[in-house]
Amino acid sequence: MNDVNIVINEKHYTFPGNITILEACNRSGIAIPTLCYLQGVSDEGSCGICVVKVEKSRTFDRACNTIIFEGMKITTESEAIYKARKMNLELALAHHPLDCMTCDKDGDCTLQDLAYQYGVKKSRFLTEEDQISTLKENAWKDNPFILFDEQKCVLCRRCVNACMNTAQVEAIAIANRGHLSKVSTPFDLPLESTTCQFCAACVQACPVGALIEKTRVGKGKLKDFTKTDTTCAYCGVGCNLSIYKDSADNLIMAKGVIGDPTLNNGRTCVKGRYGHEYTQHPDRLTTPLIRKNGVLEPASWEEALDYTAKRLSEIKEKYGSDSIGVLGSSRCSNEDNYAIMKFARATIGTNNIDNCARLCHSSTVAGLAKSFGAGAATNSYSDFSASDVFFDIGSNTTETHPVIAQIMKEHLRKSDCTLIVCDPRKTDITKHAKIHIQHTPGTDVALLNGIMKIILDEQLENTKFIEEHVENFDAFKQKISEYPLEKVAEITGVKAELIKEAALIIGKAKNMMTFYSMGITQHSTGVDNVLSIANLSLLTGNLGKPGAGIMALRGQANVQGACDMGALPNVYSGYQSVTDPAVKEKFEAEWKVTLSDKIGLQATLFGEKGLTGELKAVYIMGENPLMTDADITAVREGFDKIEFIAVQNIFMCETVAVADVVFPSTSAYEKYGTFVNTERRVQLLRPVRKHHPNVMDDWKIVSRLSQKMGYDLGFDSVQDVNREINKMTPSYGGISMERLEKSGLQWPCPTLEHPGTPILHKEGVTKRPNQKGLLHAIDFKPAQELPDSDYPFILTTGRILYHFHSGNETRRTSVLNEFVPKNYVEINPLDAKELGIQANDLVIVTTRRGKLELNAKISERPKKGVVFIPFHFSEAPANILTNAALDPVAKIPEFKVAACHIQKK
Amino acid sequence: MKIYRIHALICAGGQCISAGGDSFESALKKELQAADLAEEIQIVETGCMGSCEMGPMMVIYPEGVVYVRLKPEDAEIITKEHFLKGRPVEHLMWRKEEGAFPRLEEVPFFAHQTKLVLRNCGLINPENIEEYIARDGYQGLAKAIADKDPKLVIDEIKKSGLRGRGGAGFPTGRKWETAYLQTSDIKYVVCNADEGDPGAYMDRSVLEGDPHSVIEGMAIAAYAIGAQKGYVYVRAEYPLAIKRLTHAIKQAKQSGVLGQQILGSDFSFDLEIRVGAGAFVCGEETALLNSIEGNRGEPKKKPPFPAEKGLFGKPTVINNVETFANIPVIMTKGADFFQTIGVPNNTGTKVFSLAGKVNTTGLIEVPLGISLRKIIFDIGGGIPHNKQFKGALTGGPSGGVIPATHIDTPIDYESLNSLGSMMGSGGLIVMDEDSCMVDIAKFFLKFTVDESCGKCTPCREGTKQMLNILEKITSGQGEEGDIERLEELGNTIKQTSLCNLGQSAPNPVLSTIRWFRNEYESHIRDKKCLCNVCTLSSPVKEVKKHARKKISH
Fold it and tell me: Which chain B residue's Cα is nearest to A89?
């Protein structure tokens, strides 16, 4: 970009071209008032407040959207400019009520600031009846999230642009024209009947009090709140949030942090925006509990810790270290997980440590490690914009990773990028796809092999990449030849032409990014599925460059971190193998204990090993396996046999209810530490609110307990833990908390000078010992339980936008729970018709393991023969029904396919 | 080819049809059948002849006899007297004041006109491409393609001095050159036929009467800039124009002057019609492009100009109907010829729809630089009932009033602007002594208030507030300071509105305040409408004589 010389207020400046007058003035310290402008979201120039005079221009020009040019002469202040701005301000205020005193946005309102600056006490055009706001009924009336007071609206359109450019939803727009125009939903339908996903980007964009979170109304003004920037504690996107609390430590509202274009940059989803009320919920555990005479009773910390230490020590003494199982947590920080990992290995002396990644991406960790030598997502959000094809398979991206879906949709809208979605359900993201392959659940390997056969047949494989960076091509090719299109079409239930069309697009892509999630991993063939995805990327050379790679979308806020920290039975932090003598020696030297080199138990085996008597005690930090494991009835039977169960949690939940000792811990919005998002970015978690005096950080509970058991973990602060992580984990060597104060860092980041690694396997050079990618010859294997005459439907389970996992947080956030208060089963209209089921009818869903009574939701989303049940609802838990058939390698259960029977009650 | 004794040109323009031209034509056909004259006399349905007030019209060649205000029952006598006996029916003919019966070209209304854009309107059958070709149609396109250098076309247009007839008068050649210089695989040519000014129907008449001239103009533009695709954006209120244009596009494709490999060359250009949905603002070019793209018809910030980044983000030449209709003339007759018409820097002609208090209303085409006086008195035949000429409004709701004192002002872009009006697309409304200027301003402002898209605050809210003040004034509730408030609002709206609709919306008000401030003052201070148009709540009745006296000064 050439430099451009301009004159502002008779002073000379030089800027790189292509910036606006506003940007030039900002950089020069010249203040320009704005109202409708919102950087990166809205620059339509509707308000006419930022006008300046450009020499030779017939009219005034808008600073916000006028690009500077060589020799431009700009005047930013004059009587005429002042008058014009003031007049437009008065016009903006022509219907705006004079009720700042009672407005929630008082003190946080651009209009108010401008009125102050320009001395507009009352617009000359304001009529008597408009002076006081009277809330009119409108499309926003019934939804629990967003309030719209039309009279306060100045039609700046920031909300409309935010809905389009930020949320990528277009649920609201301008209706009518001229002075009758208004912000509206299509045909004034209630907002909840539109495509709105309640991310409230519109609210965040509103410069006045017209759009506001219903949940904050009457709870204070900006001056009453304290703001803290932290990382969202829900999904793996890792949005940066500013959370506001009142003087009584209640979390009131949240905004997406604006500024880092490589991250969420202002975006968040409905859970990030609203899902923080649980932190101040009366159900919070605030005292340790000990089971006495079958009942959990309050106890002191000393008593609970002593008792637990005693029991664990006894069991270890009596049955050996491996009779104890420990669970770290994807909901807890790196420091919490490192501490419990060290506790399991050093204090207890077992590798029986795992976390709920077992239930979500254990197949990824295993599969991608086989193919590339590292089991994590390869690329970053910021390089999606370099893709010309998005291949999204087995991911309900809009609901499970809402902000990633927004980033994807933005790129799709702004470029010629093509989206292909493979999902048995017609989820929201499929609406943005050129091709939607609605295959039968559990047929992913066949589908992917079929696609790769066409690519090979059409000679669209990346020969150069394969030659230089890939091994085992011949065996792979041989296997692929067994998957002709007709066979694949039959297995998957998808039209052959559609598969071919998709394969040709994939084969011809310059840069393809693959996205996948639980639809791939949660199968008894989860690892095979992941290997097939890796195969496709190796075959087409889509690895190690911007816009080309594999985004394994991690589900929980710190599931990546829990794995990175070694809360896994086979590795220490940084995926250092427990069976590697050098690694063992290193940790033994540091920890001054003897460590086990025997790979431990996977979390999904805890129930079974409890039943067999091999597992005598479990220690669980922040997880709820009795809700989230498959076939929970069986798991519960196993847990019943376990002699001693101790848990750390923030709420009473299914697993806490069966514990012998309960330790109340801090929530993610109360602790200091680090989280890792799905692009391997380590980010700071800052305490937003003070925790209850009688609860403790998870790492601290573990440390105290370890001390009681006679081993000092050596941690007096979070920083102590973090320093040990840096020291003992090569890929985290340079990720200090001091550096994270400035911005997140993507591992590997071995030294303090290292900038972090946005793209793994650069140029196709993988992390395997010979630096090559390994192709695998994979056979299609059907799911473990297929429909038959007794159980004719396929049941698949998953998440919904408004709730999260076992529901502990979202079900205790009134606004979310009010919006989706109970469980349901999605049934295809054709199936519903055959079964005589109508919307909201009570139906009984039965599998070989249990049954649930649910309301029917007739929906085009599942394909015929498939039903879907979310798993968030403890009163009707989907996992009573799911099949605990495990992947032989990753031990992940087959949550996505079970045979079921449905009948109307 | 069949030879006919008589050609009867029946105006099939919108006005004549709605005045009953259709019924007259069927009656005439029946009479000709009955008289066994169908083989001797050819009826030609032409486009608008211009003098719409006189419609339904028919011109008989070879004599050039002009029949006006025809009714079905007149068919019999014309057939019997004129066609059978060769005696023109005088009581149905256009009559000069002194009682003479002029031939078409002698009628003053036509005699002072110069027809380039309307060269074929009223003369040829718009549904027959051969008639267009017979009048040198598609020669301009053929010449452009034969010369093999698009740059030559652009140079010719630049040299002609043609300026955009949509109203702003931007040099057409420069616009084309900008688009020509853009590097892009895809470029577009768009014709703005979303004519919306109240009372203006120049573009409709061209589309109805000579659609091929627009198609040819667009094809030449496409050749010049390297476009493959074009759109004509026509308002839905013009069904006849849409019908004739659709037919013409089909014929042009069949004849090889549109579509693939035009005239056997490598040049291909396809044309599609897009029908508007009744929003005036879609006549603003960026709003129009938004509408074609399927978005809400709202203007966008310029720059980037459409020639750089227009339809679907690609370089786009967008001109209005009249501009395109000029192109074939320039290409066939040359820029030098074109420059001889009009005055320097304002070359060529302009079509106006002459309306209001003038004896002969209708569509006229005059060389630029002609005086307002000549238009009103020589062509329009003066003010009815010998009333006083008070002012003329050009530019429709975007324009302003030219007062009687400036009646000798030459009609060119710059002179009109300097008087606070503008050329606009060609509406020309004549007002006499009975027209209340506050009321006129209110009428046009109401139109813009209704048609404002609402995107920017100054236009959406400002024009509404101005209208509120005008309504107050005209109902007798005006107060001191209202005029100044109108001026203050008007200036802000002009300076800070996003598009031309808003930037020009205050013109009718500001120009009437400029020239007729006394009328505003009398409404406000004396609660009197000097022309007795406004009903003021204050019950002071004004005597008309007094009003007349005042204006004649």
Answer: B457
